[in-house]
Amino acid sequence: AERYNARESEPRWQRLWDEKAIFASKNDDPRPKYYVLEMFPYPSGRIHIGHVRNYTLGDVLARFMRARGYNVLHPMGWDAFGLPAENAAIERKVAPKAWTYDNIAAMKKQLRSIGLSLDWSREFATCDPSYYKHQQKMFLDMLRAGLAEREKRKLNWDPVDMTVLANEQVIDGRGWRSGAVVEQREMSQWVFKITKYSQELLEALDGLDRWPDKVRLMQRNWIGRSEGLLIRFALDAATTPAGESELKIFTTRPDTLFGAKFMAISADHPLAVAAAAKNPKLAEFIADIKKIGTAQSIIDTAEKQGFDTGIKAVHPFDPNWKLPVYVANFVLMEYGTGAIFGCPAHDQRDLDFVNKYNLGNTPVVCPEGQDPKTFVITDVAYDGDGRMINSRFLDGMTIEAAKEEVAKRLESEVRGNAPVGERQVNFRLRDWGISRQRYWGCPIPVIHCPTCDVVPVPDDQLPVTLPEDVSFDKPGNALDHHPTWKHVTCPKCGGKAVRETDTMDTFVDSSWYFARFTDPWNETAPTTPAVANRMMPVDQYIGGVEHAILHLLYSRFFTRAMKATGHIDMSEPFAGMFTQGMVVHETYQTADGSWVTPAEVKIEVGGNGRRAVLMATGEDVAIGPIEKMSKSKKNTVDPDDIIASYGADVARWFMLSDSPPDRDVIWSDERVQGASRFVQRLWRLVNESAEIAKTADTKTAPAVRPATFGPDALALRKAAHGALDKVSSGIERLHFNVCLAHIREFANALSEVLAKGDKPASDLAPDVSWAVKEAATILVQLFSPMMPHLAEECWVVLGQTGLVSEADWPQIERDLLVEDSVTLVVQVNGKKRGDVTVPRAAQNADIEAAVLALDAVKAALGGKPVRKVIVVPMRIVNVVG
Ligand code: ANZ
Ligand code: ZN
């Protein structure tokens, strides 16, 4: 046969699949559904190799489940709002809309070239008014249901992108996109009340047993539930500004109360503000520490600093015990009550603090086996288990018992009508601020009226569409600068009013697109609940671990909000979640330090290992570490180039074969070439098999299955059905690299049969010819999810009708999976001496003979005669001497 020509074949099959629309799924299909979804792309302009991996993983599963008889839903769309479109408008003077849709067209063409089994009939972009119209409707539903609110709060302001960011979007104190140091500003904004579901979002994680543990753990930590005690400390009147009389703190360690050395409050705490009003030095200190920002990570790493306000707090168990109140840079206003008591012996931050200000420490928990008299803390706080010491009535108790005792006593102690202590559960999770001061996003459908305040846009006036005649001459929000767009009449009173010019965080767009895919044709509602309830949840969602918190948590919340407002009847959108690894590559750097792309470099393998040479000049380049592909290090490969030189199937096969899907895969040209050679090998193998099968059909063997199979045919059939079994269960578990190894092994077994002796193929026994055709057919079906184009071409060669993409998955003949031989344990006088492997059908006499011939048995008998041999079928042989 001629070489397989992917460049000619791949587009041809892609066109045919398209014309026949074989991947379109129907909502009234009576078969069980299976919903496979990969995180939809942002239309940046080009597909990168990470996308190819992501979509290939999903495609293998989709094709497999389709062959298994499921009504597979495998849609694709575009996460199309966002800042880059505005940046393009500023830099290149193209309209964000035109830029976005051009990119979509280009990327769609690229996606098609990968041969994905996608249902394009459901495609949409989140910037389509026909999509965001429903998002606006749901916003209004959520407003009515109390799940959306307007709130004034201190916000993270990104001074470069000129927008507010959610806490989740601030990484190490910087904007997740711009990298600029984030500032704090007090502003009004719209929030989604995700905290109403804190407990539920946490608990339901237990049921998501097809999610990676690490993702569930990250969500758990993000939600951050802690059980503790709220304690009202009285303030010593003589030292306290007028109007203030107590300080409320939140602690998870009430057991450590007798180790308290100081109190600390946030710079934003009202008591700090009151004290600063009378103390300019304190005011100056507060202004200073506010400069570093209040992001958690900054606070965790910054040096602990405090300022003694002079105020004293009274210990709740001892009216004569006064504790100094500091303003400290490591206490956050946003958590708990914005105030703490510090117990330095058992909290590292507190210890660093007292060591700096010479406040001392008293250990109150002593580790088991340690003498309390010699137990001292110097630089390292002890946060482990132990017994209470130096703690009056708590002494000798466990931590748990002491916590309980303190809680009980303070709960029942009343000061001024209220208990001094109160048990409380706190969550780190904050409500989701969704207002963005940006043009290219979904408009928030409300109107601000000077008389009526906030007025929702009436349903029949949706969508509120974005104006297209916008200018980006000034920084900030182009919607706000638009001459006419925001000026409207109030729907309630008819007076002059203005539209909300903030748009929604683009994470809102991606929080429900999976539900929209179930019926994107519905013009009047976001979903058709009966359809959404049948097609959801997504059975297998696949995407990067970078979305483990934000996108996945928002989607879980939004699905609950849709449930509360009647758009769907379930809480969890993703039954199965898979986080794929990245595609990584070596880096190359010339002597002058500039990065060069893999395409410019030739790798030479010689005696001294691998060497990289710049092809243009012949100069040596340094091989740097393997890193995530990035533009800055130029270590990227372009999917278009790969597909043009090797074909999509090779790229798919390589990425599936080289490492488990959840790990990083190292892109290597050498190994891609290996995959390419394997494609040609399969092609030859199938062609040779087809030749034999032809002979079998027409000359020596009947087309029907032979009644019996000889040992050679049987061995091949066992290899085929064994591979079928292993690959089938492997795909279900996304163990693709293992599946590919089984396919290779099976291809080898088939090759060996074809290569046996130098007999012409027509001389193969009829049962063997029949088995060869069966094996080749199974082989093609096994690799068809991974290399669908090659598989279609091979399907034709094998004389099969229809498309392999539409064929049913082969039936496994289970009796072929039974092993031929059994291994029995051999004992002499009850003691194990070894084992013996015999044919499954062996008679006892044969087994006895085999056992007695074993050297280990002879040695154990030491020349003594054998009295008896007992065979326990399939398990043990005991020789009695
Ligand atoms: C006394 C104490 C003693 C504490 C001890 C810890 C160890 P989680 O588990 O994260 O909820 N804390 C409370 N509010 C805070 C705030 N706004 N900013 C900074 N820290 C704050 O942490 C609860 C613990 O974090 C609380 O328990 C409090 O310190 C501190 F040996 O109280 B603890
Ligand atoms: Zn009005």
From TrEMBL:
One of its GO terms (molecular function) is leucine-tRNA ligase activity. The keyword Ligase applies. SUPFAM superfamilies: Anticodon-binding domain of a subclass of class I aminoacyl-tRNA synthetases, Nucleotidylyl transferase, ValRS/IleRS/LeuRS editing domain. InterPro entries: aa-tRNA-synth_I_CS, aa-tRNA-synth_Ia, Leu-tRNA-ligase, Leu_tRNA-synth_edit, M/V/L/I-tRNA-synth_anticd-bd, Methionyl/Leucyl_tRNA_Synth, Rossmann-like_a/b/a_fold, tRNAsynth_Ia_anticodon-bd. ATP binds at K631. Residues 220-411 form the Leucyl-tRNA synthetase editing domain. Residues 429-587, 628-667 form the Aminoacyl-tRNA synthetase class Ia domain. It is an enzyme of class 6 (ligase). PANTHER family: LEUCINE--TRNA LIGASE, MITOCHONDRIAL (PTHR43740:SF2), LEUCYL-TRNA SYNTHETASE (PTHR43740). Belongs to the class-I aminoacyl-tRNA synthetase family. This is Leucine--tRNA ligase. It comes from Bradyrhizobium elkanii.
